[in-house]
Amino acid sequence: MKLYFISVAILFSLSITTLNAQQEYFEYGFKGGINLSNISGDGTSNYETKTSMHIGAYGVYKILPKLGIQAELLYSEQGFSNDRIPDAADVEKIEEILRMQYINLPVLASYNVIENLWVEGGVQVGYLAKAEAEEETVTLDSAGEVNSTTETIGKTDNYERIDLGIAGGLRYKLSQNFMIQARYTQSLNDINKTMAGDQYNSIFSFSVGYVF
Fold first, then answer.
1. Pick from 103, 17, 91, 113: which is nearest to 57 by CA?
2. How far apart are CA 198 and CA 166, in angstroms?
3. 198: which residues sit within 8 A by CB, 6+ positions away?
4. Please, what's the b/e burial string for 34-62 (b: 16 or more CB within 10 A of its CB; e: otherwise)?
5. How many of the other CB atoms lie within 10 Å of CB of 148?
6. For residues 195 and 42, what is the distance between their CA atoms, to the nearest angstrom?
7. Fewer Cβ in 10 A, N or C end of the chain?
8. pTM
9. pLDDT tens digits for 17-44?
10. Burial, 109: exposed, middle or buried (Cβ in 10 Å; 0-12, 13-18, 19+)?
């Protein structure tokens, strides 16, 4: 019986040691935050930054004490806002908001520069699930009365489904269970099928994460 309890105690100790070792070299959790997104490139000088959100999960495997490989799976809302120049004389203004819904997979190298601060850089593959534009048209009738109409237009077919980009930023571990993150992501491929020239997603993102 004594031997049984000793064996159980040894196995329990080994399990705790193994778990601690795994936690030391593997970290995972959930994250979410805001995007400050826009589309840059040819013909985009009037576009304005749109504020939206992202949420998802991430994991970091430390291949060396100061070097890790990080992968994430994120739902990300992106796009831009724009005041278009009206064609008709009775139209005062047209306000357009493009909303794009992406599923993004960033894969990054993560390097620990100082205690709790990591520099991240790598590539991201995004899949466009949906894109739609909300257009508000403001008109002025002959009596001087202002009228407004809003229309939602599907735009998914106007954009490439796959968005390949580069990403870089910083991650800071506040405590054992919480971290904050800042990142910039830029498309490498032209995402717009219909406009002349090249257009690219451009996103600043800020996240708060829970670490298990």
1. 103
2. 16
3. 41, 42, 190
4. ebebbbebeebeebeebebebebebebeb
5. 11
6. 9
7. N
8. 0.84
9. 443 444 467 899 999 999 999 999 999 9
10. middle
